[in-house]
Amino acid sequence: MGIEHTTFVGRSVERVEDAALLSGFGRYIDDLGTRPGTLHAAILRSPHAHADIVGIDIEVARALPGIVAVVTGRDLANITTGLVPAVRAALDARAIAVDRVRYVGEPVAIVVARDRYLAEDGCDLIEAQYRVRTAVVDPVAALAPDAPVLHEGVGSNLVSDRRFRYGDPETAFAESPHSLSVTVRYPRNTGSPMETYGVVATYDPTDDSYDVLANFQGPFSIHAVVARALKVPGNRLRLRTPPDSGGSFGVKQGVAPYAVLIAATARLVGQPVKWIEDRLEHLSASVSATNRVTTLKAAFDGEGRVTVLNWDQVEDCGAYLRAPEPATLYRMHGNLTGAYAIRNVAVRNRVVLTNKTPTGLVRGFGGPQVYYPLERLMQCIARKLGLDPFAVIRRNLIPADAFPYRTATGALYDSGDYQRALDEAARDGELDDLKRRRDAARAEGRLYGIGLTAAVEPSVSNMGYITTVLTAAERAKAGPKNGAQSTATITLDPVGSVTVQVASVPQGQGHRTVLAQVVADVLGIPMGQVRVTTDLDTAKDAWSIASGNYSSRFAAAVAGVAHLAATQLRDKLARIAAAQLNLRPEDLVFADGRIASRTNPDAGLPFGRVAATSHWSPGLVPEDIGSAIRETVFWTPPELTAPDADDLVNSSLCHGFIFDLCGVEIDRVTGKIRIDRYVTMHDCGRVLHPGMVEGQVRGGFAQALGAAVYEELAYGDDGAFLSGTFADYLLPTATEVPDLRILHVESPSPFTPLGAKGVGEGNCMSTPVCLANAVADALGLDAIDLPLTPSKLASLAAGADEPAPPAGHAAPKPPAKPGDRTLRGEGLAQVAAPPETVWAMLLDADLLASVIPGSHGVRKLSDTHFQADVSLGVGPVKGRYKADVTLFDLEAPRTATLTGTVTGSLGSGGGSGRITLEPDGAGGTRVSYVYEAAVGGKVAAVGGRLLDGAARVIIGGFFAALARRAGGPSGRNTGLAGFLRGLLRRLLARLGASA
Q: What is the annotated signal peptide range for this record (predicted)?
């Protein structure tokens, strides 16, 4: 009678992590203790997108009690260097600006104090002066010969321009009867994790070394970049991560520049320094996905079979090209044909710099930017030919008998049966029923559409894919780079317990649970006997440059290498037990906590006893084994080779498959999308934990829904950041996320130890374009860009049929163009004094100082030129500002025009207005005004939703005080954003001016 063992892999066992996370015992970076004497840092950031730093006055801040130091870029210039980019370009990408700022939110100074509150106060007291330059935010405009150049050493904003050719695209275009193209402007978005960035750094002067604790996600190739920027060898930089991280979705690889910044600051002040990012900082200056302008052209026959693709991609990486960028552009290079058997491809890839936050890796990086134009193209082909999009997609799929399949651009797809997945999704997702629902809705005059999307989900990135940005000659000179090395260590303690350590930092994926499942199955022990540690210490733990948690590599690579390490350790234990039991190792079975004969369960030993042998009785261990205490395995798959001389690159190891279908209805009046049904089919190879796979799919879908319908990191034409709060950068909540039908087929990967593939990013790639295809179907559109906001869809739904306004009603004003932050308004106020008295008051500096809210004094430089210092606080934004106001076109005591500027640590503003004073017939004055103004910096980022109320309060306060000084009640005032000081106060009150 043989031994049967209950296995854990493939079952939805209870998550090990949840007991701590759900009861408040998670250990995040801000929860961990710090060394005595640790100081706290706050960062002063640029309010301008492009400007020279004229001067930074830190004396007042430095004199504040509790402030230990104020550090500027010049202070760090000699002990740090730039963060080396992935391309050869003269980019001095430092962690803090020295002479020039290139995006809103770029660090310009650091205040170090006893606590964070004092440090923030110190930032408010710093006076930075700038000479503003013209900014460029559109990547296509940045290519123009007369565009402002961000880095003179580069000579232009174009840092890379590569062309690729595979097959014979010219002939394919010439011989195909049909062709069309789509142009897509994919917007910026981000991951918005619950926990923001955090760094705690210490410098040891005795051996010139740094100890940095950061919630850094990896990839750990950036360890070398950080060490270089700190001017120390790699073994002088100890990088540690906390046990828990409150989400990342890729963005926490962007902690790296702050690790440099805080570590170098700790060196200067001679004490440990801690910095925890706030939400305003995170949205404006952490990291975002790239925005990309793509023109994709295809040629095809009368049945929709595509023979060739021509990609023209312009990638906006923001102000600096920070490693590992342009990873987002090249990660999908091997997958540019998606799930389709297309053998001819032409590509042009351009990497462009603009005055926006530097980009980085965001969940699904590269996938959404590729599949949006590709799957829009497939629907447009079907629309042009009058065919069913389902038939066109199916007709172009790679045949099931072609796997492993080499794409035209070099990817090696490991396994799959795409036709089967499509057919099962259509059947179980009831596609025919959706078509009937669409027909019925349209018959009733409702807007209903169906979207379809097929996508290949790459996972386990080949770190050499980024070198495709270099020419073959440049790669040959630099040396080949390739692979995806993963690391795991399995340790046995003296009582036979098992500890697992992997070089992958989780952000909620369930590492501890899945690794315990895998190792427990190999060793035949209960999961509770396995403990997994999830923090990483580069000074003590096994890791490699490819380590980290990115590109959905956990199940395929990390869990796979843990399986290999456990298997090697099990084989050693089998030989130890075999020697004691006088049996052959191959006759032993590990099950139910014992190591026993496969045929005679009575002939066996407890696992713990055998596992402890190397500790307690090393003399019983066969000499050729050495010991069975710790097993470390490094694994890299041979399929991940370097790009070849023809630029063919297998950019990822595993390739899952996704087919999504959905039905959506659009409200004709509001433009709101209602998702009637969403079905997502996944082939992620072998499923290790069904419950967590479902969680990854649902989480990816929720994030993708936000990217499709709500989210955009918006910028004004001058580079001002406009999405600084969750009132302006909208995220979907539980009430907006519909239920899903999740379907699976399994085609285990032959390239991974467990047959698993990635699944964590797929819906971020497929869902945005699936929803867009449904919207385009509902509205009959050939082109549509994200986000699919209600206002955009309502306008598209109305089209030329928008009815005229009712009699007596003005036509609605056209919507402001995206990025227009201009605040325009007019109003009235009543003052109980004659115009002559009010006029004199408006020109009296001492009186103005007493009535301007938050004023610290007004200086009269001339009869028509005033300067003032004010403290301003609206909502979450508070700070101290300098205002400069000039009056001209004066017609005393009737009218005056004002212009002015306001600058401070949190932002800047400018505008103009016209004030008119008229007698009211009762001895008083009716004050009317009209104005235009806009602001930038953190104030702009907070958003326009606080603007109106803030303006009313501030301007109301100004006129009420003015009226009191004039000797009468304030009477009526309607709000203002008023002028005179209105440009000084309201400008900054407008706290955001995002339209």
A: none
